[in-house]
Write a structure and sequence with these properties.
The structure holds three protein chains of three kinds. By secondary structure, chain B is mostly helical. Chain B is built from 17 helices and four strands. The two termini of chain B are 24 Å apart. Among the domains of chain C are: 31 residues; 143 residues, Orthogonal Bundle (Cytochrome Bc1 Complex, Chain D, domain 2). In chain C, 43% of the residues lie in helices and 5% in strands. Chain C starts with a helix and ends in an 8-residue tail after the last helix. The chains are: A alpha+beta, B mainly alpha, C mainly alpha. At the B-C interface, helix 4, helix 5, helix 10, helix 12 and helix 15 of B face helix 1 and helix 8 of C. Chain C: Keywords: Heme, Iron, Membrane, Metal-binding, Transmembrane, Transmembrane helix.
């Protein structure tokens, strides 16, 4: 037994030790890189798949929405509010454009030019993701006459801007455009 | 660990000292696969496959859990969700191909592991428990693999489920109700698919548990080795780490090269094209075969073509179907008594001339023939071949092994592992300086070997 | 001892049952019984070799020929799509064939897919969108069977993976139509049953699908390639290889990268292993 240990030690000259360490470190770090590379598929498989990313446009016909009414559509599996504002609501919203707000935006910022009466927002409260009330007839519209989130009491005004409650941001306006005078394409 | 010279774990930092008192995990690892586990110094590459099998189990669990995030076990959509994984999920194709080929590689590795055990008689005392647990693992693997193959709900999935559960219908009296119970219906459908998915998810963790027992049982007597001579002194062993961690690391690299070559260049070569056709209960594929790793056992199942009758009376004692089922399960279950069938005191096939001949010229060709016949259609000459091979298979284990082990004159064994590796001089030196007890060096068979009973 | 004795008895019993009741009767039947009857159709089957020169995606370095895939798509659209669905492929996937987003939008819109009337909820049809999947030509399997003499045209999405050596198989099948050798047919009493068609590359040579590619120039290729039957067959076989495995080229390219890395890592592991074991093995004398 002693002799075998001696055989091992004989190769352990200064130079031998250094060369040995180098090769082990290289082998282990390469294995580490390989292990880390395996994480790429394992992690990215949980990201949205190709079909989810692709199913991202929704067309909505807004012609049938009367002033003061709103409809709920679906965009990326989330509720989308499309509301036609009355003249009074537009006036009220414009009046508040300069008011002190948590997330200052004007009505013009949030609508398309020439279609100031059509307000398109996500129906997702920016606080923790509940669906605010106020789109359907007779629902609580909150203190500012727009939307009201019942989960934690966020009040949005007629332009969907956060005015009171815990939500940090205005209701999000998704990317959209008018493909004709009456049809919008979201996404 | 049983060897007196095994290195002891010594925590060095305050953290490891604290951990060693509260939950000695580092100590466990150190003693299991670290420097604290002395292993025979003469293991050849056949001893790599245990670690590789464990690695395969890990691949399967990791890729399987991930695939289950996208799969739906419902007969209406299962096939489509697999295609969804292949087409839409990020890296889904790689994960699924890794899982499908991972199953094949798991079996390749485990078969090599078993053949090593058979040739070197690793099943013999004092290692019977390791072997028995290994057979349990193998049976669990077969069940898991079968149920996994059903999940894509292709044609082979469906008809495999039909045929394999149909085996149970061969059992007298309770057979047919049993098959209906297994399937939860009269044919494979949602109920069967869901329970197979549930069990396919569960069983790998059961396997992992038995693997832990398998390794635990291994650490009681320590690893066997190619000479079959038990470890006698410290010079016979090296610490598992770094010696065998390094060797297993290299083996893992070679394994991964073969695995990656299949996954990336021939991912469907080991599968069957019919499984890319969605299950159709109204149409059976022309030629049903199980996955390749079941072919030898499928050949045994199909070898029994005639009912066992009383001649000239036409009275059927046992129908052929039941004979085949008994033989197929029996062919694996007999491994459970293997440690007691082979009474030779010598373990390694290298020192057993007669056993060696039967192993290489009887058993191995038989397995090849069974493999080929199992994958072939039920036509001549494959049926006759499978019958001859099946007969030899049972004769080999049940008749030849007991008799050979009785009459065989083994070759002289080396005195010790050290002598086998370094030659006699070194061994003599070792016997002078080491802790070897008893026996005349180099002449008598290993004194520590007892007859298996 | 008991176990070994029992083992020997059981082993001999199993062997006896196998040999006396299965092997011997089987052998007698094999050696002296009538030879198994083979269907006459097997005499006409010819194994195909695939297109001359193979496919661009063959082999470990294979790549798609994008122009060919576009031509194959045209063949599918103008010929196959009349009967065969492609249900796992979405129009958006066509971007992989080198079409721009706008071209894919236009292509999708040229297909009619089932939809719902937004006002009444009645089933109706609408132009396709990129996110839609290729529509089935039949509303359901019963309709497909009824329209095709009881043979349901299979979905083609996975056809080249659902047959052995599928790309070549599709090509061979499309060029394998013709007539059985009349002399041989008369001798063997072989006749293609009514409603089926002779195809020497189909496993039992009688196929329910009428010859789909009948004329040179059946489609007119925009890129000027001459649309001979073998050319169209090859193009559509390539297209169906893509539909079955869109990740094929990405897979092979990733494979080279992975293999290269593994070879490097394994070489290092080998050196490390040898370094650790140096001195443990006796030197060869």
């Amino acid at each position: 037994m002693a002799s075998d240990t001696a055989v091992l030690n004989e190769t352990g000259t200064e130079e031998g030790v250094r060369r040995r360490d180098w090769i082990h470190i290289a082998a282990l770090s390469t294995a580490g890189v390989g292990g880390a590379a395996v994480l790429i598929p394992l992690v990215s498989q949980m990201a949205p798949s190709a079909d989810v990313l692709a199913a991202s446009t929704t067309e909505v016909d807004v012609s049938a929405i009367q002033p003061g009414q709103a409809i709920k559509a679906v965009f990326r599996k989330q509720p989308l509010f499309v509301k036609r504002l009355t003249a009074e609501e537009i006036a009220a919203a414009k009046k508040d454009d300069g008011a002190s707000m948590r997330d200052p935006q004007t009505l013009a910022d949030r609508t398309k030019e020439g279609h100031e009466d059509v307000l398109v927002t996500m129906g997702v409260c920016t606080h923790l993701g509940c669906v605010p009330l106020g789109a359907a007839e007779g629902e609580n519209k909150g203190e500012f006459g727009g939307y009201f989130c019942p989960c934690h009491g966020s009040h949005y005004d007629v332009a969907g801007r956060i005015r009171k409650g815990p939500a940090p941001l205005n209701l999000q306006v998704p990317e959209y455009s008018f493909t004709s005078d009456t049809v919008i394409r979201v996404g | 660990m049983s060897f007196a010279w095994a290195k002891q774990y010594e925590p060095k930092t305050a953290l490891t000292k604290w951990l060693d008192e509260k939950l000695p995990l580092p100590r466990l690892v150190y003693n299991a696969v670290g420097a604290g586990y002395p292993v025979p110094r003469n293991l050849n590459y056949m001893w790599n496959f245990g670690v590789l099998a464990g690695f395969c189990l890990m691949i399967q669990i990791v890729t399987g859990v991930v695939l289950a995030m996208h799969y739906a076990a419902n007969q209406a959509v299962a096939f489509g969700t697999v295609e969804h994984i292949m087409r839409n999920v990020n890296w889904g194709w790689a994960l699924r191909y890794a899982h499908a080929n991972g199953a094949s590689f798991f079996f390749i590795v485990v078969y090599l592991h078993i053949f090593r055990g058979l040739f070197y008689s690793s099943y013999k005392a004092p290692r019977e428990m390791i072997w028995l647990l290994g057979v349990v693992i193998f049976l669990l693997m077969m069940a898991t693999a079968f149920m996994g193959y059903v999940l894509p709900w292709g044609q082979m999935s469906f008809w495999g489920a039909q045929v394999i559960t149909g085996l149970f219908s061969a059992i007298p009296l309770v057979g047919e109700p049993l098959q209906v119970w297994l399937l939860g219906g009269f044919a494979p459908d949602n109920a069967a698919l869901n329970r197979f998915f549930s069990l396919h998810f569960l069983l790998p963790f059961v396997i992992a548990g038995v693997v832990i027992l398998h390794i635990w049982a291994l650490h009681i007597p320590g690893s066997s080795n190619p000479t079959g001579v038990e470890v006698k002194s410290e010079s016979d062993t090296v610490p598992f780490h770094p010696y065998y961690t390094a060797k297993d690391g290299f083996g893992l690299g070679v394994f991964l090269i073969a695995f990656a070559a299949m996954v990336f260049f021939l991912p469907n070569a080991l599968g069957h094209p019919d499984n890319y056709i969605e299950a159709n209960p109204l149409s059976t594929p022309a030629h049903i075969v199980p996955e390749w790793y079941f072919w030898p056992f499928y050949a045994i199942l199909r070898a029994f073509t005639g009912d066992l009758t009383i001649p000239f009376t036409g009275i059927v004692l046992i129908p052929a179907k039941l004979l085949g089922v008994i033989a197929m399960f029996g062919s694996i279950l007999l491994w459970f008594i293997l440690p007691w069938l082979d009474k030779s005191p010598v373990r390694s096939g290298h020192y057993r001339p007669l056993f060696n001949k039967f192993f290489w010229f009887g058993f191995m060709p038989t397995m090849v023939v069974l493999f080929i016949a199992g994958g072939a259609p039920a036509e001549e000459p494959y049926v006759l071949l499978s019958q001859v091979a099946t007969a030899y298979y049972f004769l080999h284990f049940l008749v030849i092994l007991p008799i050979v082990s009785q009459i065989e004159v083994p070759k002289p064994l080396p005195f010790s592992i050290t002598e086998a590796v370094l030659g006699k001089d070194k061994a003599a030196e070792a016997s002078r300086t080491g802790t070897v007890d008893g026996g005349d060096a180099g002449t008598l068979p290993d004194g520590s070997l007892q007859p298996a009973e | 001892m008991t176990i070994r004795l029992g083992g020997i008895i059981v082993g001999l019993a199993i062997t006896a049952v196998l040999v006396l009741w299965s092997l011997v009767p089987g052998f007698i039947n094999f050696a002296f019984g009538p030879p198994p009857e083979k269907q006459a159709s097997y005499a006409f089957y010819e194994h195909g070799e695939g297109p001359e020169g193979g496919f661009s995606f063959d082999g470990p370095m294979g790549k798609w020929d994008v122009a060919q895939l576009q031509r194959g798509y045209q063949v599918y659209k103008e010929v196959c799509a009349a009967c065969h669905s492609l249900k796992f492929v979405a129009f958006r996937n066509l971007q992989q064939l080198g079409y721009t987003e706008a071209e894919v939008d236009a292509e999708a819109a040229s297909w009619t897919v089932p939809g719902l009337d937004p006002n009444t909820g009645e089933p109706t049809t609408r132009p396709g969108e990129p996110t839609d999947y290729f529509p089935s030509p039949y509303p359901n399997a019963i309709a497909a069977a009824a329209a095709n003499n009881n043979a349901i045209p299979p979905d083609l999405s996975l056809m080249t993976k659902a047959r052995h050596d599928g790309s070549n198989y599709v090509y061979d099948l499309l060029v394998g139509y013709g007539e059985a050798d009349p002399e041989k047919a008369a001798k063997l009493g072989f006749e293609t049953p009514p409603g089926l068609y002779f195809n020497k590359h189909f496993p039992n040579v009688n196929i329910a699908m009428p010859q789909p590619l009948v004329l040179d120039g059946q489609v007119s290729y925009a890129d000027g390639t001459e649309a001979t039957i073998p050319q169209m067959a090859k193009d559509v076989a390539a297209f169906l290889t893509w539909t079955a495995e869109p990740s094929l080229v990405q897979r092979k390219q990733t494979g080279w990268f992975v293999l290269g890395f593994l070879l490097f890592a394994t070489a290092l592991a080998f050196l490390s292993y040898k370094q650790i074991w140096a001195g443990m093995k006796p030197k060869k004398k």
